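User: Fold this; tokens only.

Assistant: Input:
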Amino acid sequence: MKFVDEAFIDIAAGDGGNGCVSFRHEKYKEFGGPDGGDGGRGGHVFAVADVNLNTLVDYRYSRRHEAKRGQHGMGSDMFGCAGDDITLNMPVGTIISDADTGEVLFELLEPGQVITIAKGGDGGFGNLRFKSAINRAPRQKTPGFPGERRNLKLELKVLADVGLLGMPNAGKSTFITAVSNARPKIADYPFTTLHPNLGVVRVAAEQSFVVADIPGLIEGASEGAGLGHQFLRHLQRTRLLLHIVDIAPFDEGVDPVEQAKAIVGELKKYDSELYSKPRWLVLNKLDMVPVEERAAKVKDFVKRFKWKGPVYEISALTREGCEPLIRKIYEHVHNQQLAEQAPKEVDPRFAGGEDSGLDMTDPRFAPQDPE
């Protein structure tokens, strides 16, 4: 299936049905009075987050989505029935924004989440609604209200805990294959990965996290070079970035330090918030470096790269060093999840009890005698 992470659609909720002007006609009932019913409401347009979808390809080729209009009111006090609603299934992580103004309207962040993206119009009133003591034979009615119409932009940002960042052929696909259930295409040429891949890493029975692998970046990606700049949006919701570097490139003329600096520069140009996310340095392909030279090579890289954060040495091909790394990643992700779920601090001015932070010995709180 083709991976599509952006689409434009036009949606239209159903119009409300018109009200009816009718009078009761029955034998021996000369003045039966008004009996025109109201029109039914138009159908709504809903969007639901579906965990079974991972692409917006359905909306690339089907742009127009319309709900049914409400039925018109009828005589004999019969109201029109409501129009049929329509539901659009979208991947979890979809952002729905106005295509004309760019305003973000909705975000589907939880599986099964249902939102109303366009409301159907209300039905019009029949002449039964206008009956009164001084207007016993009303001939007024109102038309149905139009349903909402919108031009929408759908943008998919995958929900992952960890994002992989690096040059083409740095070993990102090999790493995600080694630690997760993902099976991306792996080959000995650059730009093997053409679209993001997600993998679930199982650390223990009930301990896991999600990793996102995007196409490799090259220098000039922020200006449109290569493929990775199109998919950097998928790293914006991650809690941790792994900067994977090929420590032993096949071409001896390639400097891994310069490549790593270029990646960091492109990341900063693309999005300052993404640049400020926690980032770990992962030096890959150590199996290509003799054991006695590894320590010196790693030390030289870190010194020239001027890196002061965490450094991990692995070989994704032989899985050397992968197990300690994924355990550290899980600890980091788990701690961030706990911090996000922690209860918010209560302002001590409004908290009761001994922990309220108020000095009850202050004279201002002393009881005063009534005059």
